[in-house]
Amino acid sequence: MSTMIKMVRSLAAVAALAVATPAVAAGANVEIHPQQWSFSGPFGFYDRGQLQRGFKVYQEVCQACHGLKQVAFRNLAENGGPSFSEDAAKQIASEYTVVDGPDDDGEMFDRPAILADRFPSPFPNVNAARAANGGAYPPDFSLLAKARAAQRGFPWFVFDIFTQYQESGPDYIYSLLTGYEEDPEGIEVPVGQYYNHSFLAGQFISMAPPLSDELVEYTDGSPMTVDQYAKDVSAFMMWAAEPHLEDRKKIGFRVMVFLIVFAGLLYFTKKQLWRNVDH
C-alpha cells in the first residue's frame, strides 16, 4: 500500500511540474501566435518561393548582426531547400569574403567565398559582437528555429504527439518579430531596450524592431509587410535548422506503411499457422 501511495504522489508531482513548465519557460503573459506553415504535418514541405524570400530578408536585414555559420553556400542549391540554381548560388557566394590560408608565406588571406564555404560570421568573436551591440550577443541563426521555442507543457505536449506539432520554433520567431509595440502605460522600459510581448526572456529586448513595411523589395508580388517578412524569414530559419525535413517525413511515411503492412502479414500468418490448434 505504501508503494502505491508513493507512486501516486510521484505521478502527481510530475503532472504538477508539467503544468508549471510553460509559465517557467515562457514567462508571464508571453504571446505566441501559431501560424499555418507549408512544412507542418506528416506531409509538409518547404515553399521554395517563401525560402527564397526569407533568404532575401536575412541578407538585407539580419545578416549584419546574425551569422549562419552551419549553412554552406552549396546548401542553397540542394534539393529540399531554396532551390537556387548552382550559378545563382555561386553568385551569392562570390559576394562574401572568407579567411583562408595559410599561404606559402604562412599568412592568412581573404578570398571570395565558393560553394563549399559556409556563411561567414558578421563578427570575429563573441566579445566583438557584444561590443557592437551594447553588450547583447546576437545569436547565430543556423539552429535558432529548433533551439528557441515556447514550451507547451501538459497536456498540450500530449496532443502534439498526435497532431505532430513541431513548429513551435518558427511560431515563436514570427511572434517575436511581430511582437514589438509602443511602451505600455505604467511600464518603464530600460534605456536601450524595447518592449516585446512575445520575448521569452522577459518583456524587454535589446534588439530594435528589425522589420518595417516596404523594407525589402519582393519581385514575385508577395506583400511587402512586416507580417509577410516575419513569416518568410521564420520559414527560412526553420529550413536552416532542419534542411532535411522533407526527406525525414518521406522516410517516416514509408516506414509507417511498411510497419502496417508487416503487422498485417504477421497477423494473417499467425491465423494460418494456428488455425487448426485448439486454444
Description:
It is a single chain. With 279 residues, the protein is mainly alpha-helical. It has helices spanning 2-26, 48-62, 86-94, 126-132, 144-147, 156-163, 168-177, 226-241, 245-273; strands spanning 97-100, 109-112, 194-195, 204-205. It has a two-stranded antiparallel ribbon. Strands 3-4 form a two-stranded antiparallel sheet. β3 and β4 (204-205) form a beta hairpin. α2 packs across α8 (226-241) and α7 runs antiparallel to α8 (226-241). The longest helix has 29 residues, at 245-273. The chain is globular, with a radius of gyration of 24 Å.
Properties at a glance:
two-stranded antiparallel sheet; mainly alpha; 279 residues; 44% helix
Topology:
Elements: H1 2-26, H2 48-62, H3 86-94, E1 97-100, E2 109-112, H4 126-132, H5 144-147, H6 156-163, H7 168-177, E3 194-195, E4 204-205, H8 226-241, H9 245-273
Antiparallel strand pairs: 1-2, 3-4
Helix pairs in contact: 2-8, 7-8
Q: What's the rounded overall pLDDT mean? A: 88
Proportion of residues in helical segments: 40-55%
Q: What's the alpha carbon Rg, rounded to whole Å? A: 24 Å
Q: What is the helix/strand order?
A: HHHEEHHHHEEHH
How many alpha or pi helices? 9
